[in-house]
Amino acid sequence: MYRVAKASEYLVITGGGVQDIKLAKKAWVFPGQSCTVFDLSPVNYTFEVQAMSAEKLPFLLPAVFTIGPRVDDPASLLKYAKLISPHDKLSNHVKELVQGIIEGETRVLAASMTMEEIFKGTKEFKQEVFAKVQLELNQFGLLIYNANVKQLVDVPGHEYFSYLGQKTQMEAANQAKIDVAEARMKGEIGAKTREGQTLQNAARIDADTKIIATQRQGEGKKEEIKVKTEVKIYENQRDAEVAEANAELAKKKAGWAKVSQMAEVEASKAVALREAELQKEVEVMNAMTRTEKLKAEFLSKASVQEANWELYRKQKAAEAILYEKEKEAEAQRAIADAGFYARQQVADGELYAKHKEAEGLVALAQAQGVYLRTLLDALGGNYAALRDFLMINSGVFQELAKINADAVRGLQPKISVWTSGAGDATGNAAEGGSNGAGLKEIAGVYGMLPPLFKTVHEQTGMLPPAWMGTLTSTESSN
């Protein structure tokens, strides 16, 4: 039949000719196909989510969610058609599914926040809850069209929010009391401030008045002194003029007396005039004598000062030379100290190196002792076997053979070659028997050892180690 869905519905067709499911608003439903209609209209879900904050304080979060299929996304519609559409959208199954997601995300988020953070950041808390719930609903093809979270309330038996409200009311009342007391304080302080300012202004005006009065009195005294000074100056000027006039008068009187006296005694005092001239010459000579004396005194003082300056200059030069010598001595002492410190460091380094070298030798000796003790224990206390092992390990036999070879090289000794088994004189195996050629070579080498040991014993007197072989008494005697 031909099926048509309503405006808020979709057809879900499955069966023959349809891979998985088919969504359509209208379509033919053929035999062998099944058609189901599901509604797209959103549904309101009311919950009271009980959660607990990080301080283990329980609270209720009343919420109303409007949830429905996401109609603008075909993939979400397919998810909804597969998972939710077989159930009625008002069934307990869908409600429990949505409620479980909301409660789980709300509790997880609330457990990571304190009650103060949840209460103060209610808007951010709601947005975080919606985002996490929507993330979980996406897997079912559902969308939160609208969500409203009511005010947080206390769980029965817990009065956190009621106590918080009482605390807020008490804080507001206390703040009002504080504001009233502060206003009263400001009024009293303002009144006292105004009174103080009044007294300060009055005192300042009195002080300014006294200062101005003192200034006026000083200016009056200054003017009085100035007038008195000018009067005194004028009086002194007048006295000076009177004295000058008296002096001029006395001078004129003296001139007149002199003229009269000279006129009177000019004739009679010729001898006195000559005596005065002679006296003048005497005074001149006395003045010249005093001048020469003063010159001599000044010259001697200048010589003494020059000598003192020369002595001072020489003293300063000597002090400079002494200071330079002291600095040179200090520099040489510092160089000597540095050299002594360097030699001391070198000696300390050499002593430390010798000490470490001695420690290394001691450690090496201890290691060698442990090594020899271990070998001797492994060989059952056989000192001869230990000696032979050490000689072989250190290449003593090879060195002996090399020294002997060098010693007899110039003597052109007789060389004997031994062989055993089939083969020519050079030790080559006879032709044939390819399977035993390698063993014959080895047998030939072992066959050569007894004559070699015998020859070494005859030439050096040394016997081979016990682990390599022994010589019979017959062979050693031969």
What does this entry show, briefly?
This protein has 478 residues and is of the alpha+beta class.
Write the layout of secondary structure elements.
Elements: E1 2-4, E2 9-15, E3 22-24, E4 26-28, E5 33-39, E6 43-52, E7 58-69, H1 74-83, H2 92-111, H3 115-120, H4 122-137, E8 142-149, E9 153-154, H5 160-265, H6 270-378, H7 383-393, H8 396-409, H9 437-460, H10 473-477
Antiparallel strand pairs: 1-4, 2-3, 2-5, 6-7, 7-8, 7-9
Helix pairs in contact: 2-4
Question: Explain this structure to me?
Answer:
By secondary structure, this protein is α+β, with helices and mostly antiparallel strands. The protein is 67% helix and 12% strand. It has helices spanning 74-83, 92-111, 115-120, 122-137, 160-265, 270-378, 383-393, 396-409, 437-460, 473-477; strands spanning 2-4, 9-15, 22-24, 26-28, 33-39, 43-52, 58-69, 142-149, 153-154. The strands form 3 sheets. Strands 6, 7, 8 and 9 form a 4-stranded antiparallel β-sheet that branches. A 3-stranded antiparallel β-sheet has the order 3-2-5, covered by helices on one side. A hairpin with a 6-residue loop joins strand 2 and strand 3 (22-24). Helix 2 (92-111) packs across helix 4 (122-137).
* Helix-strand makeup class: alpha+beta
The radius of gyration over CA amounts to: 69 Å
Number of strands: 9
Describe the global form: flat
Uncertain residue ranges: 422-435
Distance between the termini: 128 Å
Largest sheet, in brief, is: 4 strands, antiparallel
SSE run:
EEEEEEEHHHHEEHHHHHH
Q: What share of residues are in beta strands?
A: 5-15%
Helix fraction, binned, reads: 55-70%
Helix tally equals 10
Average pLDDT, rounded to a whole number, is 77
